[in-house]
Design brief:
The structure is a homodimer.
Chain A: H1 6-17, H2 23-30, H3 34-46, E1 50-56, E2 65-73, H4 78-87, E3 91-97, E4 103-109, H5 112-125, E5 129-143
Antiparallel strand pairs in A: 2-4, 2-5, 3-4
Helix pairs in contact in A: 2-3
Chain A binds a DNA duplex through residues 2, 22-25, 32-36, 38-40.
Amino acid sequence: MRKIDHVDRQILQILQDDGRTPYTEIAHQLKVSEGTIRSRISRLLLDGVFQFVIRTDPEKLGLNVLAFIGLTTKLGRQKEVAKELAELPEVTFVGAFSGKHDLIIEACFANNNELIVFVNEQLSRIEGIVAADVSLELKQYKESFSYVGVGEDESLPTERG
Amino acid sequence: MRKIDHVDRQILQILQDDGRTPYTEIAHQLKVSEGTIRSRISRLLLDGVFQFVIRTDPEKLGLNVLAFIGLTTKLGRQKEVAKELAELPEVTFVGAFSGKHDLIIEACFANNNELIVFVNEQLSRIEGIVAADVSLELKQYKESFSYVGVGEDESLPTERG
DNA sequence: AATTTATTTTGCGAATTTCGTAATGAAACA
DNA sequence: TGTTTCATTACGAAATTCGCAAAATAAATT
């Protein structure tokens, strides 16, 4: 995979704000040709560095309850539990972690009742979940889906499988 | 705000997979005119239902360490702490929660060392953080940035401020 | 250092998409 | 039934994307 240089990062930065910014516009901002932007974007896409998506506002879709749930799983069942959870549409995030909880998931619901039904009925049905620690989101202060600009170029180690 | 109907949801679903799908293409798939797609999308954007963004792969950007950190804050300092945290580029998510932790944040780093430096130097500098409970992400099983298709239309309560 | 080789950038014309806008159609209301 | 409102459609104009070949750059080799 080719190294991601400063121009690439600038492209990503721009697309972060508006994923539909025309190539011509990006080209103009970065003072290169449209073809350059196009070839770089298609390379970044090919390398799986980023993808075009949309970000929806859960509240506007009627999902007013968002919860993080820390799970303790029975030894040896973690992976299976994770995969089962990932199948559920309410669950928007599943990760295995070190620390207090073996798995942490994020899920969203229309209301508190749906949440409690989820915990009591859906989670309890999954074999291997020992405990669930629910945290209800009261207010969101930040959420960024793009990691551009965190560790700059120099932090990039040479290569990686 | 106008009700989000099935066509809107289908549009969002398509854009979820590829945020650059042309209006003409969506129109063709949904068997309506391009103008309809265009007017619906601009309305959804105006209503803040969604926005065009990109999703970058942290690993491809050299960010191999992702952590969730549960924070306990001093009573009355939660909001200020949250705002300070939101300013940090490493921090990609900040939320206030009910439950074990007052705040939960997500942050990413190039390596473990940067993480420990962050916890020991950045977090400790913020006035009002009582305790930090770090969970290291070992594996990610699912992450969806769009909530379309969770609670279908019928789950949408009438209106909301 | 010179030459080859590989890669990136640029510059067009053609195809496609988006945009502006006015006409049409459909639902809500009086 | 007539009126108002709002969504959909149609279509030409403007802008964007695409395909591709030439030029420029960078990297590798001798």
